[in-house]
Write a structure and sequence with these properties.
By secondary structure, this protein is α/β, with parallel strands linked by helices. It has one domain (about 30-300): Zn peptidases (Aminopeptidase). Helix content is about 35%, strand content about 25%. The chain is built from 8 helices and 12 strands. Helix 2 packs antiparallel against helix 4 (about 130-150). The chain is globular, with a radius of gyration of 19 Å. Keywords: Hydrolase, Signal. GO terms for molecular function: metalloexopeptidase activity. One of its GO terms (biological process) is proteolysis.
Length: about 300
């Protein structure tokens, strides 16, 4: 009987450990180890900093599409790729947005765009800028959402937008908003994630909470993941830098679409070649992604 008790205790500890430290966060249905692995892959030297129009960016695009196909997450309008061109200085760039789609179960005519950019700074002076936090972290967070939707289909239709050329002036999101595929009046919200994997104070900012009354209601009643502080700010109403137009959510804000931008304060490796996988904060990152999914879950239950 004594041995049986010890065996039962060991089994319970193993189950507990697997739940909290193993493969899947069962409550929010994303693979926490894969969350890290995707960042590690996309921020590796093989992708040469994912500069728009380079071989590294094309590798990243193919990686994203292949993963969406592997988990059987379909494209928007029959095609994952939305190609575009733009000029900057004397150079013409070719970019590609990657667009995934899942149809809503209750309000399919209304769409929420979840976005992150997959490009980064590329190679400068022979040094690779890998962009782990900026923004491989947001790309992998979108993968986590895709996994979540497999077990928890959203009530609104959802577009997963992996934007290109953010670092060159938000070009991918600008092009999407100008050529939206889904009419703009059918898009009720943009949730953008850009730099969500590290902060020494365990603080994650939510910008745009005041862009729609539903967002304020969710924020005020949001259940925070233990160990993480979610702060509404950087929106022009406090004394901090205004991030309303700092990333791809700006393209939606400019056409009056409500938005929430999740991101962290700039850190010592921001836009430096030291923004590597080894410098992200894994526990904070997992908590941030879970908190954003919880936020979405509440928003998705509302009527816009």
């Amino acid at each position: 009987m004594k041995n049986f008790k010890y065996l039962s205790l060991i089994v319970c500890i193993a189950l507990f450990s697997n739940h909290f430290y193993g493969q899947e966060n069962s409550a929010y249905s994303f693979n926490s180890e894969n969350l890290l692995e995707h960042v590690k892959e996309l921020a590796s030297d093989a992708y040469e900093g994912r500069r728009t129009g380079t071989a590294g960016a094309n590798m990243a695009k193919e990686y994203i599409i292949n993963h969406l196909k592997t988990i059987e997450f379909g494209p928007l309008d029959g095609n994952y790729e939305q190609m575009f061109k733009f000029g900057k200085g004397k150079k013409t760039y070719k970019g590609v947005n990657v667009l995934g789609y899942v149809r809503g179960t209750e309000q399919p005519e209304k769409h929420i765009v979840l976005s992150a950019h997959y490009d980064h700074e590329g190679i400068k002076n022979g040094v690779i800028y890998n962009g782990a936090d900026d923004d491989a972290s947001g790309v992998s967070a979108l993968f986590a959402f895709a996994e979540y939707f497999k077990k928890h289909p959203p009530k609104h239709s959802v577009i997963l937008a992996f934007f290109d050329a953010e670092e060159l002036g938000l070009q991918g999101s600008k092009y999407y908003v100008a050529n939206p595929i889904v009419p703009l009046d059918a898009i009720v919200l943009n949730i953008n994630m850009d730099m969500v994997s590290r902060n020494v104070n365990n603080e994650l900012y939510a910008v745009g909470i005041k862009s729609h009354p539903n967002l304020e209601a969710v924020y005020k009643n949001h259940k925070i993941v233990e160990g993480l502080t979610l702060i509404a700010g950087h929106d022009g109403t406090d004394r901090k830098d205004n991030w309303t137009y700092s990333s791809d959510h700006a393209s939606f804000a400019k056409v009056k679409i409500p938005f929430v931008y999740f991101g962290v304060e700039d850190h010592e490796d921001y836009h430096k070649p030291t923004d590597d996988y080894e410098n992200i904060h894994p526990v904070f990152y997992k908590n941030a992604v879970e908190s954003i999914i919880r936020f979405f879950e509440k928003i998705d239950k509302m009527t816009f």
